[in-house]
Fold this protein.
Amino acid sequence: AYKMQLLSPLPSHVLHKALGVRPRLHYKQGGTTALREGEAPTAPATNDGNTQRTPPNGFSSSQESRRRSAAEGGAASHSNFPSRPDVLSAVASTTLVLALTGQALRMVAPIASPAVWLGHADALQHYLSQGVSSPSLALDAGVVAGVSAARWCLMALVSGFKASSNASNAQALSACSPLDVVWVGAIPGAAEEWCFRGGLLPAISPDWRGAAVTAIVFGLLHLLDRRRTPVSAAWATGVGAAYGALYLHTGNVADAALAHALSNVVSGLGYKLGGTQAPDTPS
C-alpha cells in the first residue's frame, strides 16, 4: 500500500478504502515521505534533530531573528549618543574655551588688528569699548524670528540639511531634558558670539569686511563636525553674517549673543518637543 501510494495519482483516502488499509501518518525517513501506523504527527526536524517550534509571539524563527537584530541595532544606535553628564561637560569646556579665546582676541586687537594699520583705530576702539550692555530686545527678537523662519524653510526644502541638523541635535540632545536644551543651546551660542563677533570681527576689521571674514570662518568651522554638509556650512555662514551685521549696527556684542542663544534654543526645543520641526521634503 505504501509503494502504491507513492506511485498512484489517486488521493490517499481512496487507496486506503480500496485496499482495506487504515490511514497512516506521515513521517520523514531518508528524505522520503513515509507512513507509520499510530504515530502522532510532529513538526519537521532541523538538521541537528531539534524540533522546530513557532515562537509564542507568532513570528517564524527567521522573523524572530530579524526582529531581535533590529531591536539590538536600535539599542546599540541609541547607546552611541553621549550621556547627559558628558553633554553638559562638553558644553562647559567648549564655553570656557570660546570665552577665553574671545577675551584674548579683544586684548590683542588694539595692537595686532589690520584696522590699526589701515587707519581705523578709532572705529576699533569704539567697538571694543562698548563691551556688554543691555541688548535691544525688539531688534534681537526680529533677528531670532528671521533666523528661525529661514531654518524652517531650508529644512523643508533641502532634505540633506534637515538630516544633518537632526543628526547633530540627536547627538547633543538625546539625553537632555527640555530644560537642559535651554542651557545646551543658549550658553555655547552666546560664547560663540563673544569669540567670533566680539573678538575676531574687530580684530580683523570693525566693518563689513571683518563681518564677512568672520562669517566665512564660522561657517567653515562647522564642517569639522562630520554630520555637517556643505549646505550646513553655507547656512552657518549666512547666520554668522546676520549676527555680524547685528553687532555692527548696535555696537553691543550682547545683541548678537542673545540672538544666537535664542535661535539655538528655538531650534533645539523644536527638535526635542517635535512640535515645530520642519516637515519632510515633499516627494
Remarks:
- The two ends are 64 Å apart (CA to CA).
- Residues 189 and 260 are 5 Å apart (CA to CA).
